[in-house]
Amino acid sequence: MTSTLKKFAAGLAILLIVMLAGCNSKAGGRNSNSSNNGKVTLNVINYHVGTDYAAGYYSYLFESFKQTEAGRNVEFKFEEIPTTDAFNQKIKLLISSGDLPDIVLNGGNNITELAARSGKVADLTPYFNADPGWRALFDDLSIEFNTVDGKIYGVPVSKEISYIYYNKDLFKKAGITPPETSFASWDDFFASCNKFKAAGITPLGMDTADSGWLTNLWFSALIATQSAAGEKWMNTQYPDNYETPQVIAAATQLQKMLSEYTTSDAVGGRYDPMATHFFNGQVAMFPNGPWMIPDFNSPDKAPAGFYDKVGIMLMPKYGMEMVPTPGDMVGAKDPAKVEAAVAFLKYSTTIENQIKALEMTGLQPVSSQVTIPASLRRDDPLMAEVLDISAKARITYGQNQAYWHQNVIDAFSNYLPELAYGYMTPAQFCARLNQAAKRNI
User: Would you give per-residue pLDDT tens digits along the chain (441 residues)?
Assistant: First the structure.
């Protein structure tokens, strides 16, 4: 072989090696079975970071999973997004265009159907069928809530409830005796709001931006506690008629609340500044769930001693939101990654971790098999009070982030300012929600 041919052959061999290496590199990319050292790397977009109420718990969860037999070969690669709104927007964008993370955390909004129909999340039904003990942790309603076309796509990690927190000192200053469990009627509730105003106290925490979480909780309660028809409507998933008498009447009351009974920055305001108003003793009543309780003792969020100033009551007429939650999903495609992601979701829903989530974050256990430790009543009496008051609810219902289509949730938030300022009547507001709902048919 001539020198020229030898050089050509050597160059060709090198080229083949580079091409093969390139192929192997692609096979070892995002959906590969493993990363270096035989590890499986799971991509996670994590919004439980910084001052998020569950940041400490999820840090524990990811780290402790890696110490288990199922997780010893698993690593996590995180992209951190510090707010639920930004997280939800990112996930919706990735559903329509892009690759979902290997584990898709629940961001509060019910995107299960949207994700399932995109074909970008795994059908988890075979995993539930193969592990009856794991399936038995969840009630049928929670499983049904995370099922699309007969297939389970989400693993519920908690149940959601919400009610009213109130500031005991502000009630005393206004000369109002807090009801033991609930205002007997909305008339009584609004009469107290007027007394707060007369005493120079802002009655209610509300917002409109980022889906209008607080305002949605008031709105849901107003609808559900009006009548049996309202209760049924608020327990209907994906309702398609928002121009019912119950919804229009609730929007009328909501308009009054936004214009007369809340802070000046509520219209256009996000949740966090509104929560700060409550922590600083600037509003008397604030709707939310048990995940907020750890914040009452947080020196980064609330003044010292604030925890002892907080009381809990049901919504007027003994109403309480109580719904299953949209579950965490698996966006991985590679079989090894799917197996690892499912193993993590199983670990996150063990009885032990459901108890730890309750203790660290206030997330309500999804399983009826959980026994609440006696130490919780001693160390966190407000959390124990939540468990007690939940049993006294006479009307339970859902809320829009759980039961409405995403575009209707967006419309609710977008049109709230026009409702608040009187640029839109309650009937027109409900008609706009109806228009958004019809686009899903």
Answer: 433 333 334 443 433 333 333 433 333 333 444 445 679 999 999 999 998 888 999 999 999 999 999 999 999 999 999 888 889 889 989 999 889 999 999 887 778 888 999 999 999 999 999 999 999 999 888 899 899 999 999 999 888 899 999 999 999 999 999 999 999 999 999 999 999 999 999 999 999 998 899 999 999 999 999 999 999 999 998 999 999 999 999 999 999 999 999 999 999 999 999 999 999 999 999 999 998 998 999 998 999 999 999 999 999 999 999 988 889 999 999 999 999 999 999 999 999 999 999 888 888 888 878 887 888 888 899 988 998 898 899 999 998 888 898 899 999 999 999 999 999 999 999 999 999 999 987
311 plus 202 within the same structural domain: yes
Q: Is residue 119 part of a domain?
A: yes
CATH code for the domain in which residue 78 is found: 3.40.190.10
Domain extent for 146: 36-154+326-365
Q: Quick one: 105 and 132 in the same domain? A: yes
pTM of the model: 0.74
On whether residue 84 sits in a domain, the answer given is yes
Provide the pairing of β-strand 395-397 with 147-148: unpaired
256 and 125 housed in the same domain: no
Same domain, 189 and 90: no
Query: Which of 339, 365, 391 is a domain's end point?
Result: 365
Name the domain count of the chain. Answer: 2
Regarding whether 279 and 336 lie in a shared domain, the answer is no
Specify if 14 maps to a domain: no
